[in-house]
Amino acid sequence: MSSGIEYYEDRFRRVYLEHFEPLLAYALRRVAHPEDGADVVAETFLVAWRRRHDIPADDEARLWLYGVARRVLANHHRGGVRRQRLGERLREQIAVAVAVDPGSEVPERLAVRAALAGLGELDREVLMLTVWEGLQPREVAAVLGVGPAVVRTRLSRARARLREMVGDDLGPPGHVLDVLTAATRKEQR
Fold first, then answer.
1. Under 8 Å between Cβ of 187 and 147
2. I need a surface site. Which of 17, 49, 66, 103 has the fewest CB within 10 A?
3. In 3D, which of 159, 87, 183, 117 has the Cα closest to residue 167?
4. Which residue range or ranges hold the RNA polymerase sigma factor 70 region 4 type domain (predicted)?
5. Tens digits of per-residue pLDDT, 145-179?
6. How confident is the model over 68-92, as a mean pLDDT?
7. DSSP string for the chain
8. 1-97 matches 99-188 in fold
9. C-beta neighbour count of 116 within 10 angstroms
10. Which of 3.30.310.180, 3.30.160.160, 1.10.10.10, 1.10.260.40 would CATH assign to domain 99-188?
11. Sorting pLDDT into bands at 50, 70 and 90, what band is 23?
12. pLDDT value at 51 more than 50
């Protein structure tokens, strides 16, 4: 029994040594990046290893490997098209998300951001998770690995400190107070 296993393993090694370079050249001529060619060859030989009992004898092995590589390349190209389409959709969503914030260039918004940078890291994160992400204190606590009481205390202090740094008069139209005054959802008990 072990001699049969050894036979197929030895045969695979011989096929690999004999056909690796021509198969790599085949793949490199069909992909845009050399690392993609290496991936195609690796996947081809993975298939060959899994199906080592099906590898034909002699010169037929080379043709069989080219057939496997051809199918692997087809999958690679389809995957590239899917990745490209996904990337385009993500870029569109990001463009829309960025375009949704008309006040991003308002000087007051920049002042709020500068004040946020002056807060301690945990206070800033508690405030941003609560106000900008809309999380409840118990949810913020789970994200940060602290207790809800700690989050409530930090949130109260962070809002007070931010008001000190920025002020809380309305100012001219366009002044951004969303960080200072936005109500949080009532925590569910």
1. no
2. 17
3. 159
4. 110-162
5. 899 999 999 999 988 888 888 776 545 544 444 44
6. 88
7. -HHHHHHHHHHHHHHHHHHHHHHHHHHHTTSSSHHHHHHHHHHHHHHHHHTGGGPPSTTHHHHHHHHHHHHHHHHHHHHHHHHHHHHHHHHHHHHHHHHT-GGGG-HHHHHHHHHHHHS-HHHHHHHHHHHTS---HHHHHHHHTS-HHHHHHHHHHHHHHHHHHH--S--STT---HHHHPPPPPPP-
8. no
9. 18
10. 1.10.10.10
11. very high
12. yes
Question: How many beta carbons lie within 10 A of that of residue 23, not counting itself?
Answer: 22
Residues in the chain: 189
Q: Is the pTM of this model over 0.90?
A: no
Backbone angles phi, psi at 93, to 5 degrees: -65, -40
Q: What tokens were used for 121?
A: 């890291």
Q: What is the pLDDT of residues 87-100, one digit of tens each?
A: 888 888 887 766 55
Spatial CB neighbours of 97, under 8 Å, sequence gap ≥ 6:
none
Identify residue 48 by its one-letter amino acid code: A
On the question of pLDDT at 50 being above 90, the answer is yes
Please give the CATH architecture assigned to the domain spanning 1-97: Orthogonal Bundle (1.10)
Look at residues 117, 96, 36, 99 and name the one whose alpha carbon lies nearest to residue 72.
Answer: 36
Q: For 30-34, 60-64, 170-174, which range has the lowest pLDDT when averaged over its residues?
A: 170-174
